[in-house]
Specification:
The chain is an alpha/beta fold. It is built from 5 helices and 7 strands. The longest helix has 18 residues, at 93-110. The structure holds adenosine-5'-diphosphate.
């Protein structure tokens, strides 16, 4: 499923982001860049120890911000590590989630990475409700594409499972 925003394709797919053939893949990291379960564990396992070595040098990343490392053995050129909010139903949660997408796209644009794949940030261990997260995510991705006009060929959301895909497909119809 996809939608054109300016010259950029915004694409929804279902699958495993470690297999994505985009120039950048985004990791749902924690603020200590310490590795963990979920998509973070999968990216470090598939990419190898070089990624963690660079994360250790960087040290940490505040919620809503993003940092960049090698992609090790992955097909991608770079991994962008961003930190979504732990969902608590606070008014700042959507802003922090949107910032994670926006800062990741700004970083990709700065590095000339023209294709970018995201997982559904914060909707696993961090507990952000899927429908709400999907709206925030796609709104922020659209904003990030428009802000970095001409810099991206494709921004892809790689959704893990049918429920996530359905929530994002519904939200895509609303942006
Ligand atoms: P967070 O801590 O930000 O919630 P998680 O990794 O726990 O991060 O979950 C984020 C989303 O990533 C969840 O929807 C989860 O199902 C999904 N996910 C887990 N593994 C993968 C993978 N290999 N590829 C894409 N998405 C994944």
């Amino acid at each position: 499923m996809e939608k054109l925003i300016g010259q950029t394709r915004l694409v929804l797919t279902q699958g495993d982001i470690t297999q994505a053939d985009t120039e950048a893949i985004v990791n749902a990291a924690n603020s200590r860049l310490a590795g963990g379960g979920g998509v973070d564990g999968a990216i470090h396992r598939a990419g190898g120890p070089e990624i963690m070595a660079e994360c250790r040098k960087i040290g940490s990343c505040p919620t809503g911000e993003a940092v960049i490392t090698t992609a090790g053995r992955l097909k991608a050129k770079k991994v962008i590590h961003t930190v979504g909010p732990i969902y608590r139903g606070r008014p700042e949660d959507p802003r922090l989630l949107a910032n994670a997408y926006l800062n990741s796209l700004d970083l990709a644009a700065r590095y000339g990475l023209r294709t970018v794949a995201f997982p559904s940030l914060s909707t696993g261990a961090y507990g952000y409700p899927l429908e709400a997260a999907a709206k925030v995510a796609l709104g922020a991705v659209k904003q990030g594409i428009e802000k970095n006009s001409g810099k991206f060929d494709e921004v892809r959301l790689v959704l893990f499972g049918q429920d996530a895909f359905d929530a994002y497909a519904q939200a895509l119809g609303q942006i």
